[in-house]
Amino acid sequence: MTETVTSADGTTIAYERVGSGPALIVLGGAMNTRRSAAGLAALLEQRLTVYTVDRRGRGDSGNTPPWSVEREVDDIAALLAIAGEGAGIYGHSSGGILALEVAAAGHPVGRIAAYEPPFTASDEAPEPHTEVDAIEAALASDNRDAAVRTFMATTGMPPDAIDGMAQSPWWGGLLAVAHTLPYDLGLANSGVVPAARYTAIAVPTLVLDGGDSAPWAARAGARVASVVRGATRMTIAGQHHGVDDAAVAPTLAGFFARS
Prior knowledge:
Elements: E1 2-6, E2 12-19, E3 23-27, H1 38-44, E4 49-53, H2 69-83, E5 88-92, H3 94-104, E6 112-115, H4 130-140, H5 144-154, H6 159-166, H7 171-176, H8 181-187, H9 195-198, E7 205-210, H10 215-227, E8 232-236, H11 245-256
Parallel strand pairs: 3-4, 3-5, 5-6, 6-7, 7-8
Antiparallel strand pairs: 1-2, 2-4
């Protein structure tokens, strides 16, 4: 059943809740909705109360402009008030960055896990991110197809793979949330870990990456783990950025059931 909570700026945020046990909020990455995490929630619901969320601008949630990191943090803070103080947060990709930002802002999170937060810059140097301009230009002309294709190309997906996805039945769902791509890129902070801010995180934190992922993933995980006090880093063998639910669920269940 879909439920809603109202964020600080009046935006309605939609979520679903399943299971029993310690509370866990699951945050998806680019072009994900709450339904993207349904499979993971089904694997966790025997041990955890899982909240899957439509981040602002997606699914049944509202989208009050202008977007900012702070407003997305406020959205999750509002959900924390429902889930209860000490709830955990797991985020995949840009959702992992959002989870870290919520903790860094001092909200009452119990535990954090982030899978491959996309801090892709090397040597802590900002990236030019020229794709942001291209994506925003495509969206300004209502060319959602071009925006999604541009974003996928920046992740390293080859053109033939993108063409194949464009023929899939879920392509329309990606186009429906294409306008939120600049939000994910904004969270990524030009690919640089905001080290000064993350030193404020004082809750148990697990940083995950896949053994078959691109080199930036391990580099980002190591950097985040080095600045978050007491963070633990773990690599899941045989996985890449699109981690399989069954591969990550046991680790998440064990980590968050301790809450």
